[in-house]
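pipeline stage [seq->struct] | target=AsnC family protein | organism=Natronobacterium texcoconense | residues=76
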Amino acid sequence: MVEAYLLITTASGTARDVLSDVREVEAVGRANVIAGEFDLIATVEADETQELLTLVTDEIQSIEAVGRTRTCIVLG
């Protein structure tokens, strides 16, 4: 099992809409709007790193108004 935190930037004024879409992704355990360099943080789980890559690139980054993402894999 691979756990990770996803940090997400969004287009100006779209954080709440993107948050709603992110929360609909099955692999997302929790997601919140945050202050700082990024607009959202989400916790995700995948069976392996390749599945995590697919999740980030195909499901999260394809959401309209998502800018860039940073994936932080949990080590312990």
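stage status: PASS
auto-comment: The chain has two helices and four strands. The CA atoms of residues 4 and 16 lie 21 Å apart.
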